[in-house]
Design brief:
By secondary structure, this protein is mostly helical. The protein contains 12 helices and 2 strands; from the N terminus they run H-H-H-H-E-E-H-H-H-H-H-H-H-H. Strand 1 and strand 2 form a beta hairpin. The chain is globular, with a radius of gyration of 19 Å. It starts with a helix and ends in a 12-residue tail after the last helix. The mean pLDDT is about 90.
Length: about 290
Amino acid sequence: MMSSDLLIAFLASTAGAATPLVVASMGELVTERSGVLNLGMEGMMLVGAVTGFGVTLTTGSMTLGLLAAMAAGMLMSLVFGFLVLTLQTNQVATGLALTLFGIGVSAFVGRGYVGQTVERMPIIFGFDGMVFFSIALVVVIGWALAHTRLGLVIRAVGESPHSAHAIGFPVIGLRYGTVLFGGALAGLGGAYLSLALTPMWVEGMTAGRGWIALAQVVFATWKPRGVLVGAYLFGGVTVLQFHGQGLGLAIPSEFLSMLPYLATIVVLVLICRNPQTILLNKPMSLGQNFKPD
């Protein structure tokens, strides 16, 4: 029987593990809703993590650290946007290159931070502020995409950029905006790892969360509430490896460690078996470049 203390600890750990996925996935969801596929999430999260940690360690201000992480993510996404929106490069290849670049840059910049720690993010009612922020983010973005003019225009651009351009919407400008927004949230999600979840810098500390965040968007079929459900599902699976013994699970820790990634693959395979599920909400121009006439 699970004790109340263990249950509370499990829920708190799940929220902590889910929060960076929620934040990063919501940025990618908005980006993809405009028709742009950014596979550079892993690299942007790593750069955000090392930037947020470095600025917080240097200045003593976590607020500055979070803002710097968002700025770093936006800077990387600006490079991505210039390449795919202005120079019309392939979105998949450019995103993969951005991830490799981010992995290298974060490892280089973070060399002097290894082994150092910062003060953990303040706790409110058992959870840190970013947990509440991530839930509010899902609500606000879901409402904005469904009920505001900007949200409807972003969705229209993602469905048919040529039609949107024909009636006067600035397709390239809007896509730049969503790409920068996605980069800011990717940087913020990365900073959560180094400032709250484990308040220290470790090379490669995202451990594939950028890729899981990308999968979350597909798992959620581009719906914000689906991202929240999926992130907490994967977060719960992730923390099972730490609470498995207390929960009485006689499962090898190595198997529990691979569960989040195994669950990601299984869910994506199950969803992709039914193309109608994917096509129902997938932006029709996703991954396709647009060049104004």
